[in-house]
Amino acid sequence: MNVFARHGAAGLAEAGLGGGLAGYMRWAGTRASSLRRAIRGGHFSLMFQPIVALADGATHHFEALIRPKPIPDFPFAGPQEFVMLVEALGLADELDLAVARVACDAATRAGASVAFNLSGQSVQSAPFLARLTDLLRSHPAREMGLIMVEMTETAEIDDLEQASSTAKALRALGVPFCLDDFGAGAADMRLLRALTADIVKLDGSYVPGVALGGRERAFVAGMVEIARAAGAAIVAERVETKAESEALRELGVEYGQGWLFGRPVPHPGAGRVAANAPTGKIFRRAGEKAGDESSTGLVSTTDWPTSVAAPRPSSRLHARQEDQHLNRPDRPEARIEGGAENPGPINNRSPMS
After folding, report:
1. Superfamily for 46-303?
2. End-to-end alpha-carbon separation of the chain, Å?
3. Cystine design at 43: which of 24, 38, 187, 257 (Cβ 3.0–4.6 Å)?
4. How far is residue 93's CA from residue 122's CA, in Å, rounded to a whole number?
5. For the segment 141-158, what is each residue's pLDDT rounded down to a tens digit?
6. How far apart are CA 97 and CA 136, in angstroms?
7. Number of C-alpha atoms within 13 angstroms, CB side, residue 237?
8. pLDDT band, very low/low/confident/very high, at 265 (cuts 50, 70, 90)
9. What is the pTM of this model?
């Protein structure tokens, strides 16, 4: 669809998609094989963008954002299109596992907490869950409490029972579960009701108007109230100005992500994590008392050592965060997903945010 939108029928023919269904099947088979080899060969890198406490600007954790490398004879326009291709070809679980390994290794080396993204396809797969939990059980990053997971809604969630099982299994391992892009999809309320989320990340499209008052601020206030009623901590993405940060804090949003706080960097904590690195204690769900770890093993964020706030970008490019995660279009204004000069996070998967 993207090829057709950009180049029309001629572009489809040039890409090998001009032969109808048979042509498409040949194309899909070839591309899937190339993409699978690229994923297994680690043909991508991750960048890490800080998520900070709005109260004091201290870095709380980092989101892993995928940066795919060029693949010969397999053109794609950017991280977002790469992720879309991965999902369309049924390889989301392969990519998510590959990203999880790299993110866990990076967290262990840096001693900093890292969140990686999972596709909606992956969280509905029991075989994927078994492979992921095997990885996490044996990885030092999980044992150190440095890992959390964000579920992106790039794929429709039809199997709520399996998605709920995935969230519960991760939380049972002490891995906080985040519902990403809240407010961007029609199914958000259904998902929040069905899944036990430790964190809700507000979609960045609501942030620019929050400091202006009126309807936009009211929408955000309503979503914050709903998230808090569900017992989740709240992160706002694509925060680009001090006015936005202050308005979000006033509404009860605890954490922010965006170019205001820092661009994606090659390593989590790159020169900014305090000497007293995180000790594995991340989010406590609202309503739980400090030290109450009976159900999840998660404890209050106040037990986390803080780090020095990330440096502010020196200019705004009118591009949102291109690095915040994987389910966003690779827009110069968005996350790969992000903020104003920040293309935001890309899904780590949103290895490829």
Report:
1. EAL domain (3.20.20.450)
2. 22
3. 38
4. 5
5. 999 999 999 998 767 888
6. 10
7. 41
8. very high
9. 0.74
